[in-house]
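Reply to dn_fold:

You asked what the input looked like. This is it:
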Amino acid sequence: MKNLLPILFLFCVITSKAQVVPNQAIVAIKNEMIDAKRGFAKTLIDTILVRNNFTLEPVKVFYSSDEIILSTTSTKSSRREISSGSRLRWYCFTNLQEMVGMTFDINEKPSAKTIQPYQFNQETPKKGHTFINEPFLTKDLSLTDYVKEKDTVINGQKCIMIKRTKVIQNVYKGIKMEKIVQFRLAINPKLTSYAFPFVSEKITQHFGGGAIVYIDGITDSGVRGTIRYSYSEFSPADTKLFNHYQQLYESNITLLDKFKKKQ
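and this is what came back:
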């Protein structure tokens, strides 16, 4: 359920090899989609720990419990939500350069039998977030399709607003998505250490450096999608957690051999 609905893939394209990711950081990604005409809104939040070429992502499962209330005077019934929420279920450790990784079920003791290795792209996504290198530069887009607008303030800091001048229509799993008629993004030039390729590296460099903190897109039917990125440093607990799963990944590296043979 953490994977975005296909409409949110209006921002994404075919996966390619990721470049080297500098430094380390916690990246929080908040996706919002609003369809005012249909009265629909959805919010998804991902948190990813990034170090060099590797990411560690906690993946949750969402649950809800309903109660059906039967009427004693008619055949009508009603439904009432008793509880809902989410709980941590897996950790995904991904090699961004090779686009392979391992899923660890926290309810199982890690072993060759319980660890799930994966190789992924847009057509065969992994659990959680599907990483896409330079997702805002498709084969039909170039840096010249983006122009600088007036500056704006986001979270109390001055940011550069960038506008895309080209209307595009992405294809996801062979299906044409709605045309994106308006697309903007904001770059915080002070966040010089966080130009990650699965967010954007080339666009931020083209406009002087920094990191993308906000994205806003509108389709021709009026559906609006926004993505907010925030960045923070590892805590000692984050470092310990990352080290733990990197060691598990490296000690079970032979599980990925079957993918290397296909390359």
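Residues 1-22 have pLDDT under 50 and may be disordered.
Hope that clears it up.
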